[in-house]
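note to self: the first set is below, dont mix up w the second
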Amino acid sequence: MKFVLILSGLVLLIIIWLVIDFRLGRRKHLLAAGNTETAILHGNFEIFTHGKELFHNYFTDIYQAERHIHVLFYIVKDDAVSQEFFSILKEKAREGVEVRVLLDRIGSWKITKATVAVLREAGIQFAFSNRIKLPFLYYSSQVRNHRKISIIDGEIGYLGGFNIGKEYIDEDPKLSPWRDYHLKITGESVNFLQSEFLIDWNEYSGEDLQDYPDYFPELPKGAVRHQYIPTEAGQLEENFIRLIRKAEQSIIIGSPYFIPSTKIFAELLESRRRGVSITVMVPFTADHLLVQEASFRYLRRLLEAGALVYQYKNGFYHAKTIVIDDKICDIGTANFDKRSLFLNKEINCLLYDPAFIERLKAVITNDILDSEPLTLAVLNKPNLLRSVKERIAAALSYFL
């Protein structure tokens, strides 16, 4: 009995510590977070939906770099793809090109000290972002740098959903083929991506390079009107709400995880009451425990309100997009879930170009053809295990 009381007391103390740690850590994060979005910029865009095509293009651009390569990823695996990636970067560093690599400490946990030492020996400047650190160990373990951007010679930018690993080029049998949306950007707005990288680089490496003009060449305007919105610590929620409120006819949401906040979900239901059509596309196959069950209570209510929900079946759907009418589309690194909304560092691109939006909608239409409608009959069919998982997922949804 005494042992049980001691154990119960320890568990209670741990819970209290976790709650205090998280709340104080979040408060500090909220106070420190800046709020930035660009004015309307003009650039040129290519969109990639398959990893092999993307990485052929991406690696070619890195090979051709002459001055500097700046890379920020959430996940870099320890496999043949990552080894090829690092080999290219090492070769460029040995040629005299400045190479900086910033990886999320937990997302890229497979990158060992030995690997980092080899990269640095080759001349690559390397840092981990978002390390677990005092005084808020638990909170810092949850806040991830989920951004995925690269800037090559200050003239070419990449932004989107792909990380570095074999699954992203269809070499994971469970999740193949991998479906994602990633942008290649040229034009004046690449300077902003460079600035955002250097802000993160300074925070985690201690090297301040914002005043170096070589990293910010004079770039021409392109054809596509757009703006960037980097977010962290809850800023994304208001941005998504603003988008939803702009809808007059239709909202299309594509995300691997559909776990909206209370406020965002209320706005979606209100848009249905205004007569706006809603289409949601999510994967049929989940890549993480409970994320699918966490989405079901929201998808069920949307279906009841007359929305359309599709589950992508031709592999794994990892794209992150929102399309509002035929006027605005959002492509970036943020998922439609609470972790992206409230915890992660993200960066999204809003595009206002009718031709690009038409092109993206054609991509989405093809993805819907590779999908299966989710129905209330399926979601409401008695299933004890799923019901238990849904309850657990609801309790943990903030961290899924």
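second set (the one i keep forgetting abt)
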Amino acid sequence: MGDDFRPANKSGLFARHGNTIIISVLAAVTLVVGVLSVRQTHPELLSGLFGTGPGPAVAAVPVPLTPTVDLAHPFAGTAVEGWADGEAGIVAPTAAPLAGFTRAQVADALDRARRALISARIDPRVLHGTDVGLLVDQFAAPKRAEVLASPHLRTAIAEGSTLLEGVPVKATGTMSVHAGRRGELIIDMNHSFAYAFTPRDRAVPAGPMQIISVVRAQSQYGFYGLADWPGVGRGLIPLDHSRFFYSMSCSAAVRGYLAPADAERVNPGGATPEEDRKRIFDPSLPMPDPKGTC
């Protein structure tokens, strides 16, 4: 399974009409509005156009921008508001004996997979890249270099972006386990994670999704604990993964990193088909269409 990144919406152009009179009137109105806008925000620019400028007592009055997002509760009113906080959103199934593994061994495999996923998608030290070893060390030695080298096996926050302090990652989804080849357990994890970022300009966010990014992640780990496995030994390894970014910076996403939509001042997720939007927020549904990319 591969990675997929949905671009934010790109505004379209209005269709042109052939009525010359209408175009002329609209042009005149646009000019007047434009002049008024320039006069209010940059009056010095009018002096060269009309030969006059503002008097010494006239000055542009900045219009204050009012934040529309409660940065202490950024998820309020969004589709992820009801998701669990942090690792509480990653729940392992009840363990039972399976394919030669005892109940305790299956429970150990599930716990290892759960802790690895928490590190990969929730632990801020791994997300920000300050201590990726916390994730790497949970895998069997022959696979650690692969995990260390790939930002695709974890959520990697782009340089210059930071998560809101004190605001937990939101998570929802499921885990399951089944027998693979002899001595092998396969653990499947299908989750969605929501991250709230510190705004680039704390007065600017027009809505919560400008600073919230969602990652739909489907991961599969293998666990080997009955005997040494060729090339692995014993332990946990990543087998397969797929992910889908939503409401994010495309320039970061194409490099495998996550940054919010406000990093590029774009309309977050506006071009995403409704069916894919449902799949992003509901990990019980199939993964979104893999065709869309940044």
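remember for set 2: Residues 65-281 form one domain.
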